[in-house]
Amino acid sequence: MNNSIEIYNLKKSFNTVKALDNLMLTVEQGGFYGLIGPDGAGKTTLMRIITALLLPDSGSIMVGGLNPVKDYKELRLKLGYMPGRFSLYQDLTVEENLSFFAKVFDTSIEENYHLIAPVYSQIEPFKNRRAGKLSGGMKQKLALSCALIHKPEILILDEPTTGVDAVSRRDFWEMLSQIRENGITILVSTPYMEEAVLCDKISLMFDGKIINSGTPTEITSKFKEKIFILKTLHLREILKIARQMPELKSVNSFGQNLHLVVRDNLVEITEIESFIKKSCDYDFKIEPYQAGIEDCFIDYLESVENV
Length: 307
Fold this sequence. Notes:
The protein is α/β, with parallel strands linked by helices. It has helices at 43-50, 72-78, 94-104, 113-120, 136-148, 166-179, 216-221, 235-242, 269-277, 293-305; strands at residues 3-14, 17-28, 32-36, 58-63, 79-82, 154-158, 185-190, 201-206, 209-214, 227-232, 248-254, 257-262, 284-288.
């Protein structure tokens, strides 16, 4: 299968800060690819280089068969780009914004309505409302519609679900699944680890580097330590106690629960229960657990800290 994006040894620095450090990435044509990492990992810098908005210091990059540095004019016809911040015209209406972007690319809303329909149909009843008066979720849908209106080959989305509610985030990912059925390659970045499982393949980014790549299943299957989930109403108290147990490699809070990673797989649930009960009489429940993407990411960070 051909690749829509090929990046080798890419470097970018801002003064003394290495934003991208010898980064390598390939995205297959028609794929649904996720870049997962916290703020400051280098995701936005990478997106801006891919979309020819920023020049790399060194390295090789091809997007849609074109070099973003030399062929940026031709490349922008192939790309749909949705930046992290809402950047449409606040004083124009929904329909006026969409019509403007359609005209920029010498097309019309009618010509490509079938492509944007899964998204635009949800905000079309508000087409006469100014963009600045839209909710966060509606702004998100408008920005995606504008990125799609010219029928791009590759869709680049920089943290599109940041700052919107959980329902809008779920709806957005469902829309992306419908869009990829048109053969469009999708590259999306997000700081939300739970969104990783919705992509075909992902790369975990940290400190300007790709630290792991593969399908979500491939990445989580590399997590070899035994892991348990602890449920309790006394999270903070039990967290302090559990972290004192030498046989536990790490203890971290995940929402309303704790994830306990066992050192060298040498301890069982009953032993952990006994250790905690020696120091408190709080109610809690411990169960086996399958490691997720965030567990893998935290495990990497802790391994780096211990080097």
